[in-house]
Amino acid sequence: SGYNVAIVGATGAVGARMIKMVEQTSLPVNSVKLLASSRSAGKQLQFNGQALTVEETVPESFEGIDLSLFSAGGSVSKKFAPEAVKRGAVVVDNTSAFRMDPKIPLVVPEVNPEALKLHHGIVANPNCSTIQMVVALEPVRKAFGLKRVIVSTYQAVGGAGNRALKELHDEAEAYLKGEEMEAHILPVAGDKKHYPIAFNALPQIDVFEEDGYTHEEWKMIHETKKIMCGGDMDSKDIKVTATCVRIPVPVSHSESVYFEVEDPKATVKGIQDALAAAPGVVLQDDPDNQIYPQAHNAEGSKDTFVGRVRPDQETPQAFHMWNVSDNLLKGAAWNSVQIAETMDKMGLLHMQ
Ligand code: A2P
After folding, report:
1. Residue 215 designated active-site
2. For ligand 1, mutation pick of 7, 8, 11 (most atoms within 8 Å of CB)
3. Are 95 and 215 in contact (CB under 8 A)?
4. Do domains 3-126+332-345 and 130-327 have the same CATH topology?
5. Is 57 in the pocket of ligand 1 (CB under 6 A)?
6. What is the pLDDT of residues 130-175, one digit of tens each?
7. What number is the average pLDDT over the span 197-203?
8. Contact 161 CB / ligand 1 (< 6 Å)
9. Catalytic hit among 222, 244, 253, 350
10. What is the CATH number of domain 130-327?
């Protein structure tokens, strides 16, 4: 016996990783159902060396499903997550559809697993750039208290999906041949203008809000507060601000994080020790030997790599660090499956 698992968005960039993470999970798995849109119905994908046929997502797809992992866009989650819950499944949703609902837990298992107890069927998986930042900040908060965070991100193209990745490759090829680069998707598929990402850096991820911040920046601010400040997305306990930038890296987000701590006795060594001992974190911090986290090396790993820990030279109790993680794994597929594993251990996941 084991769980009957559905993966919604199985043909996507995150979906492919969800399949891998379910192959590797410590959860007992009885069956796996791969769901996508009607466009991919009939397509075959491998699960544990076995060919599975992708099916169109309809309400009845969730009959008998115990655990459903969603990563097919917010509107698909809004439409089908309640259908899955109605049929007895727990949904771990990787989209932004439910993240800011005060009744729905937003969880990073290393940081706030206890929030899972409050679930009513749906658990939200945070934004990729938020997850790797809070994994690296939580050990600092525990050891020294945390007052303020200023983050600048260097985000991979894979976070925008498979079509955006293809666009990066096509543009790079065109550029190297001396041809015009064509942009149709980035920075945001639905926005008015598109710009090349190859050989470029785009300070726009998601749409602009009225206050001049992008929605990605808004998510990093409010999701961090919801996760680290007991569910309050507007908490004043930790001040957070963000600048989010897309760079032409296929997979793995990097972040430059400035943070101020409460404890005047905090030192670089103390922060490094806290990071080295923290779950999900690998400290790579040896400037003398040019050791620091790199996007290129993080791909395929479930960990968050942290380095370049150093004091601010003018502000007391302030530090900088650099963190890198595979945005499609810890930022999405792995965090979702890790939520399910944590719920199983807490007795919150059931076989029908
Ligand atoms: P499909 O391949 O059938 O379009 P990505 O993030 O890489 O762009 O992937 C998006 C994922 O969401 C794909 O698996 C895609 O399936 C799926 N998807 C898109 N629209 C729907 C829909 N209306 N119903 C179910 N799945 C959808």
Report:
1. no
2. 11
3. no
4. no
5. yes
6. 999 999 999 999 999 999 999 999 999 999 999 999 999 999 999 9
7. 98
8. yes
9. 253
10. 3.30.360.10
- Name the packing angle between helices 128-144 and 268-276 (round to 10°): 120
Amino acid identity for residue 285 in this structure: D
Which residues have CB under 8 Å from 252's CB, separation 6+?
A: 156, 295, 296, 298, 299, 324, 325, 326, 327
What is the overall mean pLDDT for the chain?
98
Q: Dihedrals φ, ψ of 180, to 5°?
A: -65, 135
Amino acid at 17: R
Domain map (residue ranges) of the chain: 3-126+332-345, 130-327
Q: What percentage of the chain has pLDDT greater than the value 90? A: 99
Fold of 3-126+332-345: Rossmann fold (3.40.50)
ipTM topping 0.90: yes
Which long-range contacts does 232-239 make (Cβ < 8 Å, 24+ apart)?
A: 233/100, 233/102, 238/141, 238/146, 238/147, 238/148, 238/149, 239/147, 239/148, 239/149
User: Which contacts of 184-187 are long-range, i.e. CB under 8 A and separated by 24 or more positions?
Assistant: 185/160, 186/157, 186/160, 186/246, 187/246
Q: pLDDT tens across 240-298, in order?
A: 999 999 999 999 999 999 999 999 999 999 999 999 999 999 999 999 999 999 999 99
Q: Is the CB of 307 under 6 A from ligand 1?
A: no
SS3 per-residue string spanning 151-164: EEEEECHHHHCHHH
Residue 128 annotated among the catalytic residues of the structure: yes
Q: How many of the other CB atoms lie within 10 Å of CB of 300?
A: 12
Residue 159 Cβ contacting ligand 1 at under 6 Å = no
